[in-house]
Amino acid sequence: AYDVVTGTNVAKDVLTIEEHVDTIAVDSNKGFVFVGYSGDDDIAYVDRYNFSVNDTVVSMPSLAVNATSIMNVYEGESVNALAIDDDQRILYVSNTEGSRIDSVEYDDHNHVATVGTPKGGIVDTLYESVHNIDKVTSLAVDYLGNIFWGVSENGIEDGAIIRASADDPNPTAARAISR
Asked: Of these four, 61, 70, 93, 110, which has the most CB atoms within 10 Å of its CB?
C-alpha cells in the first residue's frame, strides 16, 4: 500500500508462505484468514490462520497473523477462488481441475477436511460440471444464500457471471446473469 499523504510505502509482509498462493479469503468476524495454494505434490490446499487487528493508532492500524496457528482445512486438485458465507461459517472453494465448487463447514475447532474423507470439517460438493465451472476465476456469496462465480474462456471468448443457490444447491437452476 502507498500512503498518498506522506508519500511513503506502508506495505509489509504479514505472512510468508513458501508455496504458490492462488487465492485468499478473510473471515473478519472470527479473525481467520484462509490461504489457498498449490503444493509441490500436485495437491492444492487451504490453510487457516488466526489474525488480529491493532487499531490503537487509528491512522495506521496493523494486522498481525499468527503463523503458528496454521490449520489445514481443505485438500483438492486445485484451489482457484475462495469465498465465505454471510453467516461466517462456510468456506466455498472453487476446484477447477475437479470441475466443482465445494463447501467446507468450519468453526473454531474444525481440522482438516478432505473431499471424500472428512477429518473434522464437513465437505460437500455443491456444483459439479455446470456452466464452465472448470474455468472459475472468482467466487462470491451474498446474505440471500446465493453463490456467484465468474468464468472465463481464457481470453478467447467472453466470460460470464453465474448465480446459483448456496443454501439449496440445484445445478438445473444455476443461471448466467451476465455475458
From this structure: 93
Would you place residue 88 in the very low, low, confident or very high pLDDT band (cuts 50, 70, 90)?
low
Which of 25, 38, 52, 161 is CA-nearest to residue 106?
A: 25
DSSP letter string over 118-175?
A: ESSSEEEEEEES-TTGGGEEEEEE-TTSEEEEEE--TTSS--EEEEEESSS--GGG-E
Answer yes or no: are the C-beta atoms of 37 and 22 closer than 8 Å. yes
**Predicted model pTM:** 0.79
The 3-state DSSP class for residue 51 equals strand
Cα–Cα distance for residue pair 80/95, rounded to 1 Å: 6
% of the chain surpassing 90 pLDDT: 13
Summary count for the chain: helices (H), strands (E) = 0, 16
For 132-139, what is the mean pLDDT? Answer: 86
pLDDT at residue 94 above 50?
Answer: yes
CB contact set of 127 (below 8 Å; sequence gap of 6+) = 100, 101, 133, 164, 169, 171, 174
Q: How many Å apart are CA 23 and CA 38, to the nearest integer?
A: 10
CA 124, CA 47: separation in Å to the nearest integer? 18
User: CA-CA distance, 119 to 121, in Å (whole number)?
Assistant: 6
